Structure formats: structure tokens, C-alpha cells
């Protein structure tokens, strides 16, 4: 006999399951994305984790962000990984002895005592800090949380807006696919083709000890990731716009630079959040809102594609838009002041044949269902992820698309639960892929429940 569906019981067990995942992935000062595959602290993971943790323990959520920010570099960058010194070097690749942050990153102001990577991840932190504050303003005021994080977040945005405007049009560029966070997205195929891969025998992938090879990036992808990171490191992690690109084809340093819509949309949403934080601390915040508006204009001018009804990536070195449809190009829906015709087009695209939300897919796929490179199981080349679902749900709600937002929320909650808090899922069936008990899946499900 079918068991009657009881949303209250489901919600209870979802809540306790998510809390259990976050508890077992907590290390005392921060949360690992997953115990096996990702045993250190990751930058954008921590921001998403804090957004969910605030419902369980606002103190732990504040600590999560403070731990990450304490590894910030002197030039303002927030590293994409903060390494846990008690984890063996061979548990994750690339390990601290690859990045050599405290020596190679000295000129850029890398911390001396903690080991980190030298690249960044999407700037969702100020938005997270604001949401964490709102969960318990009393605790936040009592601990001086906002006053302590504000200067660090402001320096982070300054770094991105000044050192990373490699295209010269006001947007931030990523210099490595790991920086954008959607590592093997088909959007990188063309810009990465210029990069000579490091030989496969020159490194050992630890990810394949935990993940199925057909769900992960290929060895050729890794060869290129390693080449880009090695050359960036060997150039002292410098972001000199003149140096970038000088190497020409085949050289790693500077040969990859991309303006990505999701990365920049998160920067803009975070700039609006920073304006709110500034106001809470007694300033006006007006200049920050104005900057967010200028960035929104730059995003529209440089990355909007009216024909496809979505944003695209710009290959800064090649000089053109990348003609691939990625979920990244839908995420600017998050921005509150987009013109109405743009939000309408984005909603049509989310529901249209390339992403099919509400018709054939349960969650939004990471890449075009009709694209040549689509693969429902391979990482960021098709599977649906929970952080992008959360960002889109928020965007849909911001623009009054309540029914679609409700539908996405419902399937995100169901898939998170039924997949055992999977890292990502098959967008058609919801089948679990990657690692289980993944922290941001648990955290964002908690946030959607509240
Ligand atoms: C490289 C931790 C991270 C996420 C990324 C995801 C994956 C790392 C990897 O895991 O990337 O940074 O080893 O594949 O692509 O978005 O932050 O969860």
C-alpha cells in the first residue's frame, strides 16, 4: 500500500538529516564540503553553508565566515581553499605543496601561518554575511560581527573590481575554471583549448579515489587546470593586466581570462548586501548601491545575448562571447534591478527547451539540454546542482515569479532528501551523482525549508 505523503513528517526528517550532515562535516571552526572528496574549507561552499547554518546556530554560521576571512590575502583576495593542516597531503589534489601560498604568494600578501590556494571563487560572501546577521541581529551586534567582517569584505570586492578587471569593461574576470566554480562547464572548452595541458604523469588526481571517473572532469581537463595554476603560481599570483596574455598560445599564465555572468551577478548581489551592512554600521551605503548599478549596466552591455534570451560568458583573450548556454547565464535573475524585459526573457529561457524547468527537468540543469556537450552525469556539463537551484529560486521570487519559484523549491527539497544530500543529480531523474552528504546541499535545503 502506498504510504500517505505527509509534508510535516517529510520536513522534519529533511531538517534532521540536513542538520546531521552539517554536524558531521563541522571541524570546529568551519565545515568541509564533504569528508572524503573535499576535506578542507572551500570559499563559496562556506558562504552557502553559512546561509543554511544560520538556522541551526547563528554562532557557527558567523564562525564559518570568520574562519574563511582570516585566511584573506593582503591584496584582498579570499582564497578558494583554506587547507586543514591535520589532513594528509595526499588526501586532496592540488595540496598545499602545489600552491606554496606562503612563499609564492608572498608579494600578494598571502598569510604566513595558514596554507591556502592562490585562486578565488565566486563572491557570495557579503550576501551570506548579511543573511547570517539577519538570523540573529542581537548576537551579531554583541560579537561585533558586521564591524569585523565589513573591512575584509570591502577589500575583497576592491580586489575583484580593480585587480581582476582584465577586460577593461568594469566586470571581474576569472583566470581559472576552478575560480568560477563550475569546473568543466562546456563554456570553458574553447578558451581552455589554448592552454597546453601539463603531462598526466606530472600529477596524481586524488578525486578519483572517491568519485566515479565518468562523473568527474577528464584527465585532459586536469592537465589544463594544472598548467594554468602552475603558471599563475610561478608568476607570483600577480594580476597585472599588461602581463596577462603576453605568453601567447600554449602558455598558461594569463592565457585564460573569462567574464562570467554568475560570478559577476554574485558580486553585484554582494555589493548590494555590503551597502546594507554599511547602513547597519551607520554609513549611507549609497555609493555601494550606485556601484552595484554600474556593474549591472556593464553586465548587460558586455554579456547579454538577446537572441538566446540569457547571459553568456565573454572570452577576454579571444575577445568574443562564448556561444554556449550554461546555468551561469540565468543566475543574474538574482539581481533586483534588471529591466523587466530582461527578467521576462530569462524566465522564458528557464522554462524553454534548453533548461525545461517544470516540464521535463526537476531541477535546472547546469548546461543546455540540447547542447552537443550535454551529459546528464558529468559534473558541470549537465547535472543539476543545489546552489544554482537556490540562486534561481531566489531570483524567481525577487521578480514575482511565485509559482515557478514554489515549484523549484519543492523539487529542490525533494531531490535533496531523496538523493541523500547528493553533490549533484541527474536533472531528469533526480538520481544522485558525485558524493553524498554534501554540505551545501544540506545547508541550502535547510534555508529553503525556512
Ligand atoms: C575544485 C568543493 C568544490 C566546489 C566547486 C566544485 C568542486 C573542486 C574539485 O568542489 O571543485 O575547486 O576538486 O573538483 O566544482 O564548485 O566549490 O565543493
Give a structural overview.
The protein has 450 residues and is mainly α. Helix content is 45%, strand content 5%. The chain has helices at residues 7-24, 43-53, 58-69, 96-99, 101-104, 125-135, 137-143, 145-163, 177-180, 189-192, 219-234, 261-280, 286-303, 340-351, 386-398, 402-418, 439-449, and strands spanning 41-42, 81-82, 173-174, 258-259, 304-305, 310-311, 313-315, 320-322, 384-385, 424-425, 432-433. The strands form four sheets. The protein has a four-stranded antiparallel β-sheet with strand order 3-4-7-8. Strands 9-10-11 form a three-stranded antiparallel β-sheet. Helix 3 runs antiparallel to helix 6 (125-135) and helix 8 packs antiparallel against helix 12. This is Trehalase family glycosidase. GO terms for molecular function: hydrolase activity, acting on glycosyl bonds.
Amino acid at each position: 500500500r502506498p504510504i500517505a505523503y505527509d509534508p510535516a513528517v517529510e520536513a522534519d526528517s529533511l531538517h534532521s538529516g540536513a542538520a546531521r550532515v552539517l554536524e558531521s562535516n563541522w571541524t570546529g571552526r568551519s565545515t568541509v564540503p564533504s569528508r572524503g572528496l573535499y576535506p578542507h574549507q572551500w570559499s563559496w561552499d562556506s558562504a552557502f553553508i553559512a546561509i543554511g547554518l544560520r538556522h541551526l546556530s547563528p554562532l557557527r554560521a558567523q564562525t564559518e565566515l570568520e574562519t574563511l576571512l582570516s585566511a584573506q590575502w593582503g591584496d584582498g583576495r579570499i582564497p578558494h581553499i583554506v587547507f586543514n593542516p591535520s589532513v594528509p597531503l595526499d588526501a586532496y589534489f592540488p595540496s598545499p605543496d602545489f600552491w606554496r601560498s606562503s612563499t609564492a604568494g608572498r608579494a600578494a600578501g598571502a598569510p604566513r601561518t595558514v596554507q591556502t590556494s592562490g585562486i578565488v571563487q565566486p563572491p557570495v560572501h557579503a550576501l551570506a554575511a548579511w543573511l547570517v546577521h539577519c538570523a540573529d541581529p542581537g548576537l551579531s551586534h554583541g560579537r561585533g560581527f558586521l564591524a569585523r567582517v565589513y573591512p575584509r569584505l570591502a577589500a575583497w570586492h576592491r580586489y575583484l573590481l580593480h585587480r581582476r578587471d582584465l577586460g577593461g569593461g568594469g566586470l571581474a574576470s576569472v583566470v581559472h575554471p576552478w575560480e568560477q566554480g563550475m569546473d568543466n562547464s562546456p563554456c570553458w572548452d574553447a578558451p581552455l583549448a589554448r592552454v597546453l595541458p601539463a603531462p598526466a604523469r606530472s600529477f596524481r588526481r586524488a578525486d578519483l579515489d572517491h568519485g566515479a571517473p565518468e562523473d568527474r572532469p577528464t584527465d585532459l581537463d586536469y592537465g589544463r587546470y594544472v598548467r594554468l595554476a602552475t603558471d599563475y603560481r610561478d608568476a607570483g599570483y600577480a594580476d597585472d593586466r599588461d602581463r596577462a596574455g603576453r605568453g601567447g598560445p600554449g602558455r598558461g599564465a594569463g592565457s585564460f581570462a573569462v567574464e562570467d555572468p554568475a560570478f559577476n551577478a554574485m558580486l553585484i548581489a554582494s555589493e548590494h548586501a555590503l551597502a546594507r551592512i554599511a547602513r547597519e554600521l551607520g554609513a549611507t551605503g549609497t555609493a555601494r548601491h550606485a556601484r552595484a548599478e554600474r556593474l549591472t549596466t556593464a553586465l548587460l552591455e558586455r554579456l547579454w545575448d538577446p537572441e538566446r534570451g540569457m547571459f553568456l560568458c565573454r572570452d577576454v583573450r579571444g575577445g568574443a562571447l562564448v556561444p554556449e548556454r550554461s546555468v551561469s547565464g540565468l543566475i543574474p535573475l538574482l539581481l533586483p534591478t534588471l529591466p523587466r524585459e530582461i527578467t521576462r526573457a530569462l524566465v522564458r529561457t528557464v522554462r524553454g527547451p534548453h533548461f525545461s524547468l517544470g516540464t521535463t527537468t526537476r531541477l535546472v540543469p547546469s548546461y543546455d539540454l540540447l547542447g552537443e556537450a550535454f551529459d546528464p552525469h558529468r559534473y558541470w556539463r549537465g547535472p543539476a546542482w543545489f546552489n544554482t537551484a537556490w540562486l534561481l529560486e531566489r531570483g524567481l521570487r525577487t521578480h514575482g515569479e511565485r509559482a515557478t519559484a514554489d515549484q523549484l523549491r519543492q523539487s529542490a527539497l525533494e531531490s535533496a532528501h531523496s538523493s541523500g544530500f547528493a553533490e549533484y543529480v541527474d536533472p531528469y531523474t533526480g538520481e544522485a551523482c558525485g558524493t553524498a552528504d554534501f554540505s551545501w546541499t544540506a545547508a541550502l535545503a535547510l534555508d529553503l525549508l525556512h
